[in-house]
Amino acid sequence: MSQDLSYIRTVLFRNSTFEIVECRWNSKSVSAMHSHGHSQCCVLVQEGLFKDTQVKDGQKTVSERGPNDSIVTPMNATHEIRCLSDVGRTIHVYSPPLAQKTDSPNFATPTQSSLLSDPDLSLNTESPSFESLSRALEAIRAKSISTDSPLFMNQLFSGVRPESLLSDAVLSASKTTMATLEASPVFSAIEVLVVKELGKVSGWDFESVEGLSVPGGSAANFMACARQALDASAKELGNQSKTFAVFVSNEAHYSFLKACAVLGLGTNSVVRVACNEQGEMLPDALELAIEAACEEGRTPLLVCATAGTTVLGAFDPITEISKICQAQNLWHHVDAAWGGPVLFSKTHRHLMNGIERADSMTFDAHKLLGASLSSSFFVTRHKKILLAANDVFDGGYLFHSDSDIDRGRLSWQCGRRADALSFWALIKGQGTQGLGDHVDRLMRLKDDVARWVKDQPRLTLIATPQFLNICVRVTPPKGQEAQASQWSKIVRDRLRDSNLAFVNFSTNSQGSFLRLILAHQDIELVHVQNLLLAALQES
Ligand SMILES: Cc1ncc(COP(=O)(O)O)c(C=O)c1O
What pTM was estimated for this model as a whole? Predict the structure, then answer.
């Protein structure tokens, strides 16, 4: 809040998650019109009468608030509080704290050797105490990369929503494991509700939908590679004499390679299918690849379509792929770790048309939707398959309920965090409409960015962005042409080292290009323009 001398502002408490501030107001004192950036502000009126004027998306709302009333200012709104009484007292809770406002983010990556000898991190504490721990935690927060800044566009997530921060505190305080219903009745129900919601937006039969939170999208893809649907005996007998084939596009995530390595199928099981220029899998190429694998004596295990590829943000044609899978009786998984949130958008849901025919899906709420990490799900429309694949008819010491009620039986994990809560909190706090609005806003921004980039002579889009991955090549200035193939990487390092922005880079046959991810709830065109203008500077 801006400093207005007619009220007195005292910070009562601040940690890396919350900041609590008391304000004492005199008659007619008024805050300047202000916003809290990406911090959510909740004000409790303790004494006095106040007029709150808020402006969000051009809409103005005015309300009067008295003792015990609260004023909640959503992110991206501006507001002004005016005291109408002789004296007033308010308590403000900001999450994350205003002190962390991302005006000057920290993108410097310290060396591991400096951190290993950093006294704030050292476990050789001479006088251990809660206070010294608190100070060390503050230092850790300050030294960490500002992934909560809109200028953090390096990975497929940026920032965490306050709803999830709040629910994380509840989750840690309620410490439990998802293994049994008796130890986690509430979180078991919450997981079922969240999974059913994902099934609903996918157009799957409500009764049959089953799923679990898993520790990341890679783990969800790993579950898709289980052999249960194809051959129930594989659970006891392993691969026997079979050599499996797992079909993914050339642009699919590397987690399929890891899954096949860990599951003992071998990374050679992964068959990469060709894509078009936009990075979408070619259904004809898939059919040929399946045919070739069968001729080689391999057993096709599953086909995975990606909804939102990691680099280009492409959506594979799910309907065409599912027709091929149905004709060949193949399990059809959709890796929607990144693009899945389009399911909540009325305007962009068509990108995942055909999902209703797929057998299972990977969905990450911690990427585009801003849930805390990790909030990932494996969901399927085949109710009994998780139990069949993962129950080992052991653990009588633990599982005392009916088999499919103890959720530990559906999972390969025993101790499991109730990660569904973070996504549940987002849905509860914003509604599914709010999730869709977030996608819609970023998709409009993506169009604005693409239009602007096309007008910049030294910037070239690698492909017209279909989703929220902006892949752009920076042509070096005159005199630096020799470094053309590396130029985007050079520029990326420069942006990061000067704390201007943290973007990623990738390479194709013509060299390196920048990849900017639009995911943050507060990211605006001006953020992208400023960083790309800085990227165009000569040195
Ligand atoms: C398409 C896709 N699938 C899966 C994953 C893995 O997700 P996670 O990082 O949650 O393990 C990623 C990560 O970027 C991804 O891009």
Answer: 0.85
CA of 367 to the centre of ligand 1 (A): 9
d(Cα 418, Cα 215) in Å, to the nearest integer? 10
Query: What are residue 414's phi and psi, to 5 degrees?
Result: -105, -75
Other CB atoms within 10 A of residue 131 CB: 9
Q: Distance between CA atoms of 394 and 405, rounded to whole angstroms?
A: 15
Residues contacting ligand 1 via CB (< 6 Å): 156, 216-218, 221, 253, 255, 306, 309-310, 335, 337-338, 364, 374, 376
Nearest residue to 178 (alpha-carbon basis) of 170, 167, 190, 196:
190
Mutate to test the pocket of ligand 1, among 154, 158, 310 (most ligand atoms within 8 A of CB): 310
Give the pLDDT confidence of 66-83 residue by residue, as tens digits. 999 989 887 667 889 999
Chain length of the chain:
539
* In contact, 38 and 102? CB cutoff 8 Å: yes
Q: With bands split at pLDDT 50, 70 and 90, how would you rate the model's confidence at 1?
A: very low
Contact criterion met (CB below 8 Å) for 300 and 287? no
Asked whether 471 and 463 are in contact (CB, 8 A), the reply is: yes
Question: Would you state the pLDDT for residue 2?
Answer: 45
Q: In testing the pocket of ligand 1, which one of 364, 367, 504, 517 has its CB within 8 Å of the most ligand atoms?
A: 364
Closest CA to 437 of 373, 491, 369: 369
Distance of CA 457 to the CA centre of its chain: 33
Ligand 1 nearest-atom number relative to CA 309: 1
